[in-house]
Structure formats: structure tokens, C-alpha cells
Write a structure and sequence with these properties.
Elements (H helix, E strand, L loop, with lengths): L3 H40 L2 E5 L10 H4 L14 E6 L5 H17 L3 E4 L9 H14 L9 E5 L3 E3 L20 E6 L2 E10 L2 H16 L9 H11 L1 H4 L2 E3 L2 H4 L27 E3 L8 H14 L13 H10 L6
Parallel strand pairs: 2-3, 2-4, 6-8
Antiparallel strand pairs: 1-3, 4-7, 5-9, 6-7
Helix pairs in contact: 3-9, 4-5, 5-6
Length: 329
Amino acid sequence: MAHPQQIRRWRLHYHTQSLHTGLKLGLRVALVFFAFFWLFKLFLNYRVMWSPVKYQAIANPVKYQAIASPVKHHVQPKVGKVTMLWGNNPVYERALKTHEEHSRRLGYPLFKLQAPVLDGFWNKMAIILSVLLQELQKPVDDRLEWLLYFDADTVLMNPNMPLETFLPPPHLPHVHLLLSKDWNGMNSGVFLIRVHPWSVQLLTATTAYPIYNPNVELRWFDQSAMGNLIKENDYFRRSTVYCPLRWFNAYMRAPNGLDLNPDSPSHLQVHPGDLLVHFPGTPKEKLDETLGPYMAIAESHRAEWEQPLENTGYIKETESFWEGIDPPD
């Protein structure tokens, strides 16, 4: 028979454990409510820059009128485009117009975060996550299937290039993330991500990475965090595919935009007919000088650069690439 004093100790221990459990549960509930509130606030900070007919209810047609005259697309879009841009950035605003022309021609809704909600580069995770959650709450037939995220320092060179060109075929349903690599490793300035719960898990884990790994140096911030997660976690790694950089993340060629740069590998440089050109690491004071020649080419709509898909070689190249990717076990 237990001694009364021992019983009191047990009761005290049980009460303490219950209190700790209650506190943990309460904290989790509070965090969930905070997360939903944060996401609701986030939805108010981005708008759809352009959208086909089905998206007109959430578009802002008045602001769009100064951008382009929308072409009516009656087919449910498969891919949406996501970016972030705020403040006074005339070079980036000019570059964004090249993406808007692409959306106008091919019917891709374009989402833009207009105000920061997190620190610096981490806003990328926030805006993509918010669009993902918005799409996942819709009926399956009404959802976008993929999102293309692009940094503001990109110029869309070929508005005739369908984003569906680069997507994995139906027999690879386990592939959820398409990335590319340069000499520094993975570059997340432009990538494609599937509208899927897996993607929500990856982006939330990426955002939380510096909190749970405070002693890990993240040289490239969110990019390093995502890269580490993919390396360290088989669940994320097996659904990620690294595609050739030129597909959707090509880098600049010569400063004039016309010639190849002999000091850089040709397969990393943008070629006529390619989707876009990305300028990672360009100093703010050099943006106009560096992006200017490429924006001039894009704005002139030269036939050499705005090739139809069938003239680019990407139909065969992407087909051959995906044939080399094994389906899930």
C-alpha cells in the first residue's frame, strides 16, 4: 500500500505533467491560430497582376489596364506565376512587364507580393506558400497544378514559350519540384513547384529551418535552407529533379545581349528562343546597365528570340530528359 506522502508526490507529478501537456497543447493551438491569421494578412498583401477569365473575380482589372489588353483564355490554366516586388524599383518594374506579356499571351495568372511580411529573401517562401494554400482549398478541377516562381531580376525573353514544356510527364507523379544548378550549386531564383501538400511541407520546413538550426550558416538564406533540406531529407530529395539551367533559369551572355560570353559555359547562357534570363548577384547600381540590353531585346519582340516552341528544340530535349528519370517504385 502506498504511503500518503508518496501518493501526494504522484499527484503533484501528475498535476505538473498535465500542466506541461496543457501548456504545450495551448501553445500549439495558439501557433495554429497565429499561422492562419498571418496567412490571411498575407493574402491581403498580394494581388493577381494578370489572370484569364476564370480568375477575374480576384484580379484587379483597373490596375491592369495600364499593363496590357487581356486576351480571353477559356481553358483552365495549368500553371501560375509568382513573384515579389515592392518599393520604387523602375528596372524591376520594367522587367516585370516582360513577364506580364507572357501571361497575357498564354493565359498564366501572375501573383505578386507587394509588401514584405518576413525578413528579406524569406518573403519568397511566404508568397509561394500563400498561393499554394489558396489553390489547394479549391476543387481539384479548378486548381492550378504548378507554380513558376521567378525573382525580380529576370527578363522574360520568349513569351511564346509554354511553361508546360518543362513539366514532368504523367508517369512521374512523385516529382514535385524542378530546380537548376550553377557553379555554386542549387539556385532557387527561378523554379517550378507542384500544387501539392508536399510543397507546403517543403516551404514550411524551409522557413522554419533557421529557427531549428540556429548554428547552421545559411550563406544564401532561404536558398541554402532549402538546399540543406533536400540534401538531408530523403522525403524531399526523391521528389526533386534538377533540370538544365537553360530551361527556365538561364544566365546572361555578353553585356550587349547579342553575343555569347567566351568566359562562361555556353550551356548556362541564354540563347534565342529560351524562356528567360536571370541576373543573380547583380548590384543595385548596375541593374539598369546590366538588364537594359536584354529588356530592349525583349521589348522589341524580335522573331529570332520569340520563337514558337516547335522551333526551339525543347520538345525533343525535354522528352529525352524525362525518359531518363525513373518512375517511383
